[in-house]
Amino acid sequence: MLSLNMVNLSIQRVPILRDVSLEIGTGATCGLIGRNGAGKTTLMRAIMGALPLEQGSIQYDGVDLHDAKPHERAALGIGYLPEDRRLVPHFSVEENIMVSLWATGNKETRRVKWVYDLMPEIGRFADRKALTLSGGQQKLVALARALVAGSNLLLLDEPFEGVAPALAQRLMEVIADLKAENLSVLISESDYTHSEKLVDQVYSIERGEISLMTASSASAA
């Protein structure tokens, strides 16, 4: 489904990603574990096309994404939940969820209904402005928006960061339910606290370099 091969990326001439290679199979849920500043967010943004590569390639379902713009990647079925949510404060919850459809020119709303069925609590405050929600509720809305676009691949950057335990548990339940949808998912975390029971394999990232973790080393992380 997703393959990165020897990706290198610098920001303001500072190397951030160094020869990064990883693969996520169809229907697999993968963890990306690394401390703050290790390169997790940069890697997610590179996959979405928000940052240009210096070297290497990113392929999605056999298609080279090198020249694809972010909205074109979303149109391919890639959804992205940024660490800082990036909701439009004065938009309603439903308007924020619809943003990805508007950006790609997609007029099909069946997936919005599916998201409401998956997370009924979202439907209960669909008319509220995003700025009136708690941080945890905003994470749920950002996840809903990512799910509307991410019919094939979902990128979740620190989805549990700054979320109350009850809402973190709810997020974990929703992500676990996605296995039945055959979605490929990449989840980044600073440690292995929340994603341990969700993932099929784990990559570790440290100073922009990535490695596949074994089951024993992942459990110790």
From TrEMBL:
Domain ABC transporter as annotated: residue spans = 2-221
Database matches in PROSITE patterns: ABC_TRANSPORTER_1, ABC_TRANSPORTER_2
One annotated GO molecular function:
ATP hydrolysis activity
The keyword ATP-binding belongs to this UniProt entry's keyword annotation: yes
Alphabetical list of Pfam families matching this protein: ABC_tran
Enumerate the Gene Ontology biological process terms. L-amino acid transport
User: What keywords does the record list, in alphabetical order?
Assistant: Amino-acid transport, ATP-binding, Nucleotide-binding, Transport
Please give the Gene3D superfamilies that the UniProt record associates with this protein: P-loop containing nucleotide triphosphate hydrolases (3.40.50.300)
Report the superkingdom from the record.
Bacteria
- The keyword Transport is annotated on this UniProt entry: yes
Q: Which InterPro entries match?
A: AAA+_ATPase, ABC_transporter-like_ATP-bd, ABC_transporter-like_CS, BCAA_Transport_ATP-bd_LivF, P-loop_NTPase
Q: What PANTHER family does the record point to?
A: ABC TRANSPORTER ATP-BINDING PROTEIN, HIGH-AFFINITY BRANCHED-CHAIN AMINO ACID TRANSPORT ATP-BINDING PROTEIN LIVF
Q: Which family does it belong to?
A: Belongs to the ABC transporter superfamily.
The name under which this protein is listed is Amino acid/amide ABC transporter ATP-binding protein 2, HAAT family
Q: What is the lineage of its organism?
A: Bacteria, Pseudomonadati, Pseudomonadota, Alphaproteobacteria, Hyphomicrobiales
